[in-house]
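Subgroup meeting minutes
Present: P.N., E.W., G.H.
Scribe: E.W.

1. P.N. recapped why we're keeping a running log of single-chain structure predictions: easier to compare across weeks, and new members can see raw inputs and outputs side by side.
2. G.H. added today's entry (280 aa).
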Amino acid sequence: MLSEKYKMIMKKITLCLVMLGVFSTAEAQKINIGKAANAVSKGAKAFTFTNEDAIKLSKESVDWMDKNNPVATAKDPYAIRLEKLFGKHKSQDGLNLNYKVYKVIDINAFACADGSVRVFSSLMDIMTDNELLAIIGHEIGHVKNQDSKDAMKTAYMKAAAIEGASSASSTVSTLNNTQIGEMANAMLDASFSKKQESEADDYSYTFMKSNGYDVVAAYTAFRKLALLSESGEKQSGFQKMFNSHPDSAKRAEAIKKKAEKDGLWKDPGTVSLPKTKLTK
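Output recorded in log:
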């Protein structure tokens, strides 16, 4: 049972899924940048922010989230499953990755510039092994393409209250614990462009194909996300958030076309949400 503190925290970071746009897991992230928006649009390019800064701040953000959310222990079925699936990819495409499971009710997953991958238990409950790999592959794509660096830069600017007028002369400084929490939430609430999401989708497909995984799983994962967003009036808060993200059904069709072109398409039949948890 989650404490009220945990529930409040997780509501703030619901559906960052940088993932397939969960895939920002579900679809794309959305950064509530507030005043930082002015800095981004008024010449924040002059603001000094390196890959090293993104990695350092990402680690601080993830450390904060790990301390403020229930993390599955090594002997937990969720952690065991993730290790079995993803343990072989700790060094993926030049990235050093670390991963954990958050035991929360939100359906989500994310990856950060420092290589931290976090998967939510409720996502694992509805996705098959290959579907999870496709989603994680999408998240890694955002890191590899430096989308996560851009998201972290904007999140930092918001937390540090850096505005356009001062951004040109500002450099990364130390944040207090409250600011780190705000930065973490802003990072997870990030929004990527259609181009970034499409490129992350392509990365995920290539990741699945090159490692011999079933690429059709990327299609079925998107179809499941589409089903979650089709619940109408009865949909939950996090499901309603899907509506503001890229169309999962269209993204599923894009995957299908790729698989057909590569001769890898196999009709999965009717895609439905499981009635029992896939992690036990």
